[in-house]
């Protein structure tokens, strides 16, 4: 096995590395694209309070944000070659390893998942809850353009994830279980 390893550590934060599988890793901070972080699709196991943003500049203003997200649970994002930067806070390490992360493809919790990798296409039910939000995704670029359809449920929710969907995301919806 061949290792390519580059570590830049400031305090306790890991910035950029490559592991034995060749998948890039990076942690907390603001990064330049492509100098610090290469364009591509990345995922993190995330956590409560995870925030990410694709940036068109480093002015710090709202108009510098191309797309952003707040996640509880796993998250997937595509950084484009036209992005100038990527910001991430409280998300843990990001990797280009897009392999399956769910224990079951027909039962999963909140977060962003890759259809046919993490979750199977089909019709799912969740008991929902206050603030339950879900979206079927055509890509992981973030923003309105990535959404095929979405919904907010205060009670139970039912959604059909199509085979052609690229991803599915939900927050505060409890567990999704495939019903057909």
Report on the structure:
By secondary structure, the chain is mainly beta. It folds into two domains: 9-95, no CATH class; 107-178. Helix content is 0%, strand content 45%. The chain is built from no helices and 19 strands. Strands 5-10-7-8 form a four-stranded antiparallel β-sheet, with no helix packed on it. The protein has a four-stranded antiparallel β-sheet with strand order 12-19-14-17, with no helix packed on it. It has a four-stranded antiparallel β-sheet with strand order 13-18-15-16, with no helix packed on it. A hairpin with a 5-residue loop joins strand 3 (16-18) and strand 4. It is globular, with a radius of gyration of 17 Å. The chain starts with 8 loop residues before the first strand and ends with a strand. Residues 1-22 have low confidence and may be disordered.
């Amino acid at each position: 096995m061949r290792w390519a390893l580059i570590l830049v550590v400031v305090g306790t934060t890991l910035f950029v590395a490559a592991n034995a599988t060749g998948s890039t890793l990076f942690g907390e901070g603001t990064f330049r694209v492509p100098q610090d972080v290469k364009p591509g699709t990345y995922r993190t196991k995330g956590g409560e309070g995870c925030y990410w943003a694709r940036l068109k500049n480093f002015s710090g203003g709202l108009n510098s944000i191309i797309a952003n997200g707040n996640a509880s649970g796993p998250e997937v994002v595509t950084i484009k070659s036209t992005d100038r930067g990527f910001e991430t806070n409280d998300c843990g390490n990001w990797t280009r390893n897009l392999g399956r992360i769910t224990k079951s493809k027909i039962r999963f919790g909140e977060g962003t998942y890759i259809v046919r990798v993490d979750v199977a296409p089909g019709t799912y039910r969740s008991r929902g809850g206050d603030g339950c939000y879900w979206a079927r995704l055509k890509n992981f670029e973030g923003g309105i353009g990535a959404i095929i359809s979405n919904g907010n449920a205060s009670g139970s929710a039912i959604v059909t994830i199509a085979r052609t969907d690229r991803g599915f995301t939900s927050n505060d919806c409890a567990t999704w279980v495939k019903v057909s």
